[in-house]
Amino acid sequence: MKIATIVVRVLIGALLLFGSVVYFLKLFPEPTLTGNLKTFNEGLTASGYLMNLVKGLELLCGLAFISGKFIRLANLVLLPISVNIVLVHFCLDPKNIGAGAFLFIGNLFMIYRYWESYKEVLKP
C-alpha cells in the first residue's frame, strides 16, 4: 500500500505541476474548443472566473504531492477542483475525460489512504 501511495502521489503531483506550469508559462498554444465546451469557457471568461487562482492552487497542491508535505491539506483543496474537472468533461467533453478521471480517482485514493487523519474533521 505504501508503494502505491507514493506512485499515485507523485503521478498526481506531476500532472498538477505540468498543467499549472503550462498554463502560467504559455508553453503550448491553447487548444481550440468547439461546441458547448467553447460556450462554457467563454462564459467563464466573461464572468471573471479566477482561473489564475485555480491554477495557482493546482501548482501548490502539485508541489505538496511531489514533496510529500501537507498531503492531507492538499487532498482537501484538490477535491472540489478534481470534481469540477470530471463534471465539466463528463457533461461537455466526454472523450477527453481521462486525465480528469485519473486525478479524481487518485484524489479519492489519497483521501482513503489518509482517512484516519480526516476523522477529527468529520466529528460533529
Structure description:
By secondary structure, the protein is mainly alpha-helical. It has one domain (2-118). Helices cover 77% and strands 0% of the residues. It is built from six helices and no strands. It has helices at 2-25, 35-47, 51-67, 71-92, 98-113, 115-118. It is globular, with a radius of gyration of 15 Å. The mean pLDDT is 92.
Topology:
Layout lengths: L1 H24 L9 H13 L3 H17 L3 H22 L5 H16 L1 H4 L6
Helix pairs in contact: 1-3, 1-5, 3-4, 4-5
Give descriptors for this structure.
6 helices, globular, mainly alpha
| Cα shape | globular
How much beta, percentage-wise?
Answer: under 5%
Computed over alpha carbons, the radius of gyration is 15 Å
Mean pLDDT: 92
Q: What is the count of structural domains?
A: 1
The H-and-E topology, N to C, reads as HHHHHH
Summarize, please.
The chain is mainly α. Helix content is 77%, strand content 0%. The chain has helices spanning 2-25, 35-47, 51-67, 71-92, 98-113, 115-118.
